[in-house]
Every structure is written in structure tokens, then in C-alpha cells.
Write a structure and sequence with these properties.
11 helices, MetI-like fold
Length: 271
């Protein structure tokens, strides 16, 4: 739990810095200054400037806002879609379950990165394309895990007791099914955010995600690939931010999982 506390502190710092970016950043992240292009780190520019003279430190601070916000939104939509379809499939079963499982098998069989690139290639780069591609390539795994949990829960005696008392399906799902799957789902949610951050950064690096001059870490790495030998800080700085952020979130998820394991929640087989 000590490591979890440390990573939680790091994550809180990153979130606060990103949230307060307009007050912390010393320069406008998209302001071009060709006279100072590719300058080395100094007191005036702590991490130097990029090929257009933009302050790297300022772009780094602002870059976290976009990556974190998009990752959280995409993960929430994925979670809700997987949760609803997983509960429907696991609780009601039958032909509806068979149809949902066919969709799950199809989407899980598709190479996620290739599918994302194809979708964005069709729809064009942008925030909307990123969200749609991430959700379509992620919901199936959530749905499968939720369905497995619901299949076990619906056979429990207290579910039969609730039905005998006249409780309808909606009441049983809200008051008995969801509370019993929320623990493992929180862990999956945290790990999904970390993966989405890497996916968005990868798409931006390929020029298929967020577009310049948006101050995004993936965009910064893409812009700096021509100058990685002469000015390596342009790639190292955003790369380290992506690594620290995703690692912190994953370690927090591991800490929550370990805590729930010791509390008697047996779901490790699904992770």
C-alpha cells in the first residue's frame, strides 16, 4: 500500500498541474517564436523550445489536460457500454446473450491498433474519431468480464430470495448485481485509463490522433522525431510524462486489486 500511496500522490500532482496549467505555464503553449527555435534548456525556457520556438515546459503542462480528459471520457463510455451489455447478457441469457457474445467474439478477434487506425482513416483524425475508435476496441473485454460475474451472482440464494419477494429485474440488478461487481470493475477501469493514454499517444504520434498545434504529449513526440539526436529533451520530456502517468494509474489499480483481494473479493481470475 506504500507504493500505492506514492503513486497516488504523483497522480494527484499531475492532475493538479494539468488543471492549473493556465496559472503555472510561463508561456502560451501555441505561441510561435522562430527567433528562439530549438533553444537549449535555460532559466528563460526550463526545457528549451521546439522547432517553432514554442516553450516545451508550457506545452508539457498543457499536454496532460488533453490526454487525461480524453482517456477518462473514453474509459467511462467504454465502462458503461460494457457494463450494460454484460449485465444484459449475463442476467437474461438466451438468444440475447448469444447475440451479444457473437459481437464480443468479433470485436475481440480484431487487432485493436489496426482497427483503430482503419476507423480513424475512414472518419478522419480528431477527438470524435479517437473516442469512437477507443470505445469500439475496448468494450468487448469489459462486457465479457461483467457477464462472467453476473452469471455467478444470478445463481446466488439471495437473488432467488429477492425474486420470491416480488422484486423486479431492474431492482435486483441495481441493488444486488451491480454492488457485487463494482469492486473488480473499479480495478479494470483504472487499468483501462492507462492503456487508453498509451493508445491516444500512439495515434497522435502517427498523426491520426490530436492534431497540431494542440499541446498534447503524443503530438509533441511526433513533432520532435526529426530532432531527437540534436535535441533529445523534446522527445524524452513528453515520453517520461506518458510513462509516469500510465504507470501511476496502473500501480494504483494493482493496489486496489490487492486491497480487495485481502477483503475477500475473489475476482483475480478475470484480470
Amino acid at each position: 500500500m506504500t507504493m500505492c500511496k506514492i503513486t497516488s500522490g504523483i497522480l494527484i500532482i499531475i492532475l493538479l498541474v494539468s488543471l492549473l496549467a493556465p496559472f503555472i505555464a510561463p508561456y502560451n503553449p501555441i505561441e510561435i517564436d522562430m527567433k528562439n527555435r530549438l533553444s537549449k534548456p535555460s532559466f528563460k525556457h526550463l526545457l528549451g523550445t521546439d522547432s517553432l520556438g514554442r516553450d516545451v515546459f508550457s506545452r508539457l503542462i498543457y499536454g496532460g489536460r488533453t490526454s487525461i480528459l480524453l482517456s477518462v471520457i473514453a474509459s467511462v463510455i467504454t465502462m458503461l457500454l460494457g457494463l450494460v451489455l454484460g449485465i444484459i447478457a449475463g442476467y437474461f441469457g438466451g438468444k440475447l446473450d448469444n447475440f451479444i457474445q457473437i459481437l464480443v467474439n468479433i470485436f475481440q478477434a480484431l487487432p485493436s491498433i489496426s482497427f483503430m487506425i482503419a476507423l480513424i482513416g475512414i472518419m478522419g483524425p480528431g477527438i470524435k474519431s479517437i473516442l469512437i475508435s477507443v470505445v469500439l476496441t475496448s468494450w468487448a473485454n469489459f462486457s465479457r468480464i461483467v457477464r462472467g460475474e453476473v452469471l455467478k451472482i444470478r445463481e446466488e440464494n439471495y437473488i432467488e430470495g429477492a425474486k420470491a419477494l416480488g422484486c423486479n429485474n431492474l431492482h435486483i440488478v441495481i441493488h444486488h448485481v451491480i454492488p457485487n461487481i463494482i469492486g473488480p470493475f473499479i480495478v479494470l477501469f483504472t487499468t483501462r485509463i492507462g492503456k487508453v493514454i498509451l493508445s491516444i499517444a500512439g495515434l497522435s504520434f502517427l498523426g491520426l490522433g490530436l492534431q497540431p498545434p494542440t499541446p498534447d504529449w503524443g503530438v509533441m513526440i511526433s513533432d520532435a522525431k526529426t530532432y531527437y539526436l540534436s535535441n533529445p529533451v523534446l522527445i524524452i520530456a513528453p515520453g517520461m510524462c506518458i510513462m509516469i502517468l500510465s504507470l501511476s494509474i496502473n500501480l494504483i489499480g494493482d493496489g486496489i486489486r490487492d486491497y480487495l483481494d485481502t477483503s475477500g473479493n475473489a475476482y483475480k481470475q478475470f484480470l
